[in-house]
Amino acid sequence: MERNYSIDFVKFFAIFAVVCIHTGTLRGTLIGNINGDDIDFIIDILARFAVPFFFVTSGYLFLQKMKGIEVKNASANATKIQISYFKNYSLKLIKLWAAWFLFYFMFDLAIRYIETEKNIEALKAMFLDLVSNVFTLDLFYYGAGHSQYHLWFLLALIWSVFILFIFYKWKLLPLLVIISFGFNIYGVFGQSYSFLYEVTMNTRDPLFFGLFYTTLGGMLGMYAHKVTAAVAKIPSVLLVLMIISLGFLQVIEAYITLKINQGNAQDYFLMTIPLSIVLFLTVMKHRNIGRNSLISKIGSQSVGIYVSHVFVMEFIRIIMTRLELNYIQDSLGWKLLFTPVVFIFAYLMYMGIQHLKSYSFTNKKILVLRKKQLKS
What we know:
Elements: H1 5-23, E1 30-31, E2 34-35, H2 36-46, H3 50-72, H4 75-115, H5 120-134, H6 152-169, H7 173-187, H8 206-222, H9 224-231, H10 236-260, H11 272-285, H12 294-299, H13 302-322, H14 326-329, H15 332-375
Antiparallel strand pairs: 1-2
């Protein structure tokens, strides 16, 4: 399977968009006579392309791999290899979620310990309260709240890929597209369209959100050659204009449904569907955008930035509060710098962890080799 370098390039901007959503960019400031909240609203809505893009990319690459295995191997052997790949893929995601869930649980525990009176009764009550709030029945589907709230994406991806794989093996992908599309449309009534009909359950989840976009990416991956041939006939300028226009329409849609009609949430919209499709078609047409660039290198580590950026963001805020520097956090200069600083330090933190893991693994291999040499 030939690598699509443009995916990593767009991932850079997608993960930066996620960081923008969580940091709040210009929220709570004034720029001349312009309310920073209004600018932040536009940035937030435009940034909503990011999570669907990650779902689409995951589905695309997963089913491209499945199809590649099928082409290269006989039917019976291909199924075994596909199941093995699916298990390894899922286990990798589960391990990633579990490791960072534990990390954020310990982070929350440490913060609460610092803020709690140092006596046995108070500490016990604090610990039991945290455990009861985190370890609920929703944990393995919606994820937990507190500082690990963003890890919902990994759980949504795990469940979405699981369902995608089953329907792929049953050769029912077109049916899954229809079903997941229906769930996604129903899901918007738990989002910004709640003023028309309110769905009270959380629709930022695997079933209503992740499944459709993962399946959409899977379909693009299954028929990549045909799709690429078709999109090659569309002028690149038209694709770019469509992306800009659809982004603008998404902002208009959000303004009408959220600002005017007071919708509940803004995780995804109706316009997110065509925007995601056109954006990914552009990526499929131009496979080498940003090849060997620093942007693509950082973009390839987007999952690391995703899992670590909330810790960096909260840690900085805690330090600023402890130093009684909240007035700086309210300044325009801080607002402009905070998002890129969080982004950069999250990247450096994750890469540092990877280097430590690599160093530890190398040392273990050296120790094993030395022991073998001594025995011989």
